[in-house]
Amino acid sequence: MRVDVEFASDGVTLRGWLYRPDDARGTTPLVVMTHGFAGVKEWVAPFADVFSAAGLACLVYDHPGFGTSEGEPRQEVDPTAQIEGYRDAITFAQTLEGIDPERIGVWGTSFSGGHVLVVAATDRRVRAVVSQVPTTNGWANFRSLVPTFMLPLVHAAIAADRLARASGKPHQTIKAASENPTDFVAMPGIEAYQWLMANGPQVPTWRNEVTVSSIDKFQSYTPEAFIRRVSPTPLLMVIAEQDTLTPSDIALQSYAEALEPKRLVLIPGPHFAVYEEQFERASSAARDFFLDTLA
């Protein structure tokens, strides 16, 4: 069972889907879920299908400025607003009939895999957290994607965008990904471009762009400051062994810094394997973890 829902976050209406298990009896635990960088909720839906089939309710929604959610500027990847969205989604979930307000989990993937660490560390309503192929250190991840010789160009673009907006011009945008390795994009590399092109265009609300200020916010993002504070909330990290988009070595270092209780699942393949050939393994690991911790 899936129905359309909406809720408010910082004056913006966020829209998504509420999944309820078919055979639910009594109150049901719920997992709050949303997409990663430049994504849409449709990419999260297959994981919600797995979770709900196992008896978990799911609240899946688009971040502010993305997909069917409201918010301006469009395509602005703002970690602060997105983290607040998670917390407002938890509040909304706690008001729903048939949902156990004391059994709420959060799930995030890629960029939102970092968000859920911050949410779990600062919001004790969260009873369990799954962080999949996550960005766990904004600056380290940024530096892994941007070669040293490109840094002056990136920072010049950020500065120019700030000046343009100060003069009343709209946010400048860049492609999220491109097949041209010389393009200034948010997610460099042919792997990201091919996956986005295979999965984005069929979703009417998806756009292959983000604001330039999203890149500025990316380099300033510090989920690593919260990793030790997640405890005592149970944590599962799902890491792709050959991930270069949210590099596995950075994520593994963050996992090592996290305190117990924690679990680690290593998935063969690159970043997008968790959505494709390793989907069953990644989704079932998260499902089983939530069933254990939210029971």
Cα distance spanning the termini = 21 Å
H/E topology pattern? EEEHEHEHEHHEHEHEHEH
Helix/strand/pairing category: alpha/beta
Q: What is the overall shape?
A: globular
CATH architecture: 3-Layer(aba) Sandwich
> Which consecutive residue ranges, at least 5 long each, have pLDDT under 50?
none
Strand content: 15-25%
The CATH homologous superfamily is named: Alpha/Beta hydrolase fold, catalytic domain
- H/I helix tally: 9
Largest beta-sheet characterization: 8 strands, mixed
Q: What is the typical, i.e. mean, pLDDT?
A: 97
CATH T-level fold name: Rossmann fold
Q: Taking strands numbered 1, 2, ... along the chain, how are they ordered across the largest sheet?
A: 1-2-4-3-5-6-9-10
Task: Give the proportion of residues in helices.
Answer: 25-40%
Radius of gyration: 18 Å
Number of strands: 10
User: Can you identify the CATH class?
Assistant: Alpha Beta
Q: How many independent structural domains?
A: 1
